[in-house]
What we know:
GO terms for molecular function: ATP binding; ATP hydrolysis activity. The complex is composed of two ATP-binding proteins (GsiA), two transmembrane proteins (GsiC and GsiD) and a solute-binding protein (GsiB). By secondary structure, the chain is α/β, with parallel strands linked by helices. The chain has helices spanning 43-50, 75-80, 98-108, 114-124, 141-153, 171-188, 199-205, 223-227, 234-244, and strands at residues 4-14, 17-27, 32-36, 58-64, 81-84, 159-163, 191-196, 208-213, 216-222. It is built from nine helices and nine strands. The longest helix is centred in the last third of the chain and has 18 residues, at 171-188.
Amino acid sequence: MKAGLSIEGLRVVFDDFVAVDDVSIRVEPGQSFGIVGESGSGKSTLLRAVGGLAPKSAGVISLIGAPDLPEPGSRAFRRRVQMVFQDPYGSLHPRQTVDRILAEPLAIHGIGDADRRIQQALDEVGLGTGFRFRYPHQLSGGQRQRVAIARALILEPQILLLDEPTSALDASVQAEVLNLLEDMRRRHGLTFVMVSHDLAVVTYLCDQLMVMQRGRSVEKLSADDLAQSRVAEPYTQRLMTASIGFRRDRTETF
Length: 254
């Protein structure tokens, strides 16, 4: 069964700083949902709060759409909800081989048949047996991110939290990883919640999205609305303008 995600009135506070302020979203089972905004808008903190990596000051986080849904923060919840981080090098233990990195979540959750599962996970992300006993420093950035995706998928989760999973990669490698993620979503019926500052990436991978500014939800719209510039809020319009890039107003002669 597929599972979705419900967040109601989420608030995250660090000392006196409000990082996420009364945000609510509902991601239907099998849907791909994007969260965009400038740096410091609270989008990554929201994702970390769902994964139990940031303190939740208020609000309710729950799974929807499947029977026997676990409580947030429990081991069963973490098995169903996995996260892929922005930096593929920083999220992998530098002194562990790929084999050890993939075996660890299986051991934590008491899942057997590790040899078959590790090989299957590597095959699914396009890495063969030759990568199994390499260390992270022996891999390219794209290969490291594939290992991180394999580590998330090896527990057979229902929801993937993606924290800017391609922003640290070259443009050509970004396309490969995005295509891999979309293929995984369709093949396994996964639900995605993806954070990005790149509107083109979100439009490509997500069905619906939310725009955040200063910890609050500014606007919710479909990816098609964003692609067609059907936006209502000035902040969203400014984000779209910034995503186009710098343009010279006049021709300069040097």
